[in-house]
Amino acid sequence: MQRADIVLLEALQNDSSRSIAQLAELAGMSASACHRRVRALEEQGLISGYAARLEPRALGLAVEVFVEITLTSQSREAMDRFERAVGDYEDILECHLMSGAADYILRVAARDLDHYDAVHRDCLARLPGVSSMRSSFSLRRIKRFAGYPIRR
Predict the structure, then answer these.
(1) Global confidence as pTM
(2) How far is CA 126 from CA 34, 76, 81, 93, 122, in A?
(3) Domain limits of the chain?
(4) Taking a C-beta distance cutoff of 8 angstroms, is the pair 41, 9 a contact?
(5) SS (H, E, C) 55-98
(6) Phi and psi (nearest 5°) for 56?
């Protein structure tokens, strides 16, 4: 990876609203060369999209929950059914297939405990093939995800 690519990726990851002119200045290149380089990084799959980071509490989502899921079967069909169903619920923010004791870990945001209870009953309890569920509540976020480290 070229130095300019690293500079561009770090800058965009930190603040994707920067203009091409601002990015070009940071990377020490012309705006047209910078634009071509950013497009190339997108085409290579290094940049998969652009988004704003929202503050959950400002949206009224004060409770963050990590839910460990164990399935009754680890067959391809059972896992495919579960993974498709997870996509149907917007309250499930993330889903990770895991190694270890749990098959999956879900991240869920809720307004409060009553809202999480409703999510648990109306969403999580309806997921197919679930043998057990264990919820852990985040008491306080210590470090927020701010992007991936980019090798130099």
Answers:
(1) 0.85
(2) 48, 19, 12, 16, 7
(3) 3-43, 57-137
(4) yes
(5) CCHHHCCCEEEEEEEEECCCCHHHHHHHHHHHCCCCCEEEEEEC
(6) -55, -45
What whole-number distance in Å separates Cα of residue 79 and Cα of residue 127?
11
Average pLDDT, the chain: 95
CA distances from 115 to 62, 69, 93, 123, 138 (A): 10, 19, 15, 11, 15
Same fold for the pair 3-43 and 57-137: no
Q: Is the CATH code 1.10.10 the one for domain 3-43?
A: yes
| Side chain identity at residue 40, one-letter code | A
pLDDT at 152: 62
| Whether domain 57-137 has CATH 3.30.70.920 | yes
Token duo for residue 89: 């619920």
Residue type, 71: L
Q: What is the pLDDT of residues 104-144, one digit of tens each?
A: 999 999 999 999 999 999 999 999 999 999 999 999 999 98
